[in-house]
Amino acid sequence: MKSEQGELKFFATFPSKETLRLLLEWHALYEELQLEKKRMSLCTETDAIKLLDIPARKLHQYVKEGYLKRKPSGEFFKYQVIKLLFEVKQEELYQSIS
Fold this sequence. Notes:
mainly alpha
């Protein structure tokens, strides 16, 4: 009986499929972020919009609020875009755990 209760407790606290999916996405983004910090590659506004999956006006809002910094050429460092996406996914992960 005790082992059955222990198993039930384990599965009751086991993360949901959604939480596991978010954790895998978060980990993959973390790895990509570390690589991009070393590369320092640039991405266009269009690429940033595609990566973040947001409308252009939202991207402009992020720039205005200081979350993203535009280079004089109009491009962004890709690591900044990935970092923003990473933070969004991290918040989703925390919400799924709570």
